[in-house]
Each structure stands twice: as structure tokens, then as C-alpha cells.
Amino acid sequence: MATTHIMLRGVDESGENLIIAREYIAHGFRERAAELATVDLGPRTPAEAAAFQSISDNLFQNAPSPEDVAAQAFDGIRDERFYVFTTTRYDPVIAQRTQSILARENPLFESLMALSKGKADGHEERA
């Protein structure tokens, strides 16, 4: 499962510190975004839901366990490494994206399905 960390700071209508309930931050934003997408795009068809589930299943099928990720993170901290990757699968995509950023190019996104099958720019996953 991917995790996104967001820091918010703001004030309400009266100028007081904005207080957002923890539960709303944890779940409400996602639920509200889904509601708005449904209003704009219409409900997901069964075929779309099945395709999304298939992509999700493929992406996480060979994912490392939380314990393995934690061990790699601790090793990275001990070794004073800033970046800790759990696989080399996406190295070609990372390299391509880095070069695009440095060239000030707009992002290009490869097929999620190809990435989920271990193919990045036509390359199979490396050990």
C-alpha cells in the first residue's frame, strides 16, 4: 500500500487555527475525493472496477512484507542512506523521470499494467 504524507496548516473563518479531525484526515479526504470523482465522471462500471482490482493485485502480488521493508529501512538508516528502495524494478523509470525533470520536460507515464508485470521501459525486473 502506498502512503502519502501531507502537512496542513491554516486558519478558519474566524482566524483561529484550523482543526481537522484525525478521522477525517485519515479517511474523509479519500472518501470525499471519491464522491467528487463519481459526480464528475459517473460511477465506476463493473469492468472498470475489475480492471482496477487486477492492476492493484498485480502491483502488490510480489510486494515485500512489512517486516522486510522495515528491515531495509533500518539498514538504510544505519548505513546513512537517504533513499531506500525495496526493489530495482523501477530503476529505469526513475532514471528516465530524473532526466526528464532535469530537462524541464512534462512527465510521461508508462502503462501501470506494464509496470505491475515487472516491465519498466521494456526491461524485466532485475535481482
Count of individual domains: 1
Number of helices: 5
The residue-averaged pLDDT reads 79
The largest sheet is:
none
Please identify the structural class as seen in this structure: mainly alpha
Which runs of at least 5 residues are low in confidence (pLDDT < 50)?
A: 120-127
Could you give the count of β-strands? Answer: 0
Strand residues, percent: under 5%
Radius of gyration: 19 Å
Distance between the termini: 22 Å
Summarize the helix and strand pattern as letters: HHHHH
Amount of helix: 40-55%
Shape: extended
Give an overview of the whole structure:
The chain is an all-alpha fold and 127 residues long. The chain has one domain (22-116). It contains five helices and no strands. The protein starts with 21 loop residues before the first helix and ends in an 11-residue tail after the last helix.
